[in-house]
Amino acid sequence: MRAIWLVLDVGREEYDRVLEWQHGLVSMRQEGLARDTIILVEHPPVITVGKDGHKENFAGLPSKPHFVERGGDVTYHGPGQLVAYFVFNLSRRGRDLHQFMNNIQEGIIRALANYKVDAKRGEEYTGVWVGEKKIASIGVAVKQLDYFSWRGDQCEYEFV
Question: Is the pTM of this model over 0.85?
Fold first, then answer.
């Protein structure tokens, strides 16, 4: 069975507004009122700090960072960076968050291969790497066992 994703390409949008959309979509998805959805967005400059954020990595910034629900440390989002937020029901995918993240990484690696970019999974850290440089970060916030919101394998999708 092939899954159908809804992909929302929203262009450039403020971080807080997109976070509100994610929370709304998670609630709708939990109630069966929305499909699995990916939000594609570019943010104006913003710094987020995950649950594992180290104060020394964000102390002294010129603006206050956004403290977020995902794991990880400090992340900069800004113009020219594509961010993909997934709001998915994992019960249809075996409830295996680790495998789902591996599928996301594999999808990124395959997409980059289409552009002749040789990428690989990180050996120690989650994400996709080109040589010694990270090209894609992955942060996850689990809402319930079945749902999460964030940043696939042979799935159909439609753009709205």
Answer: no
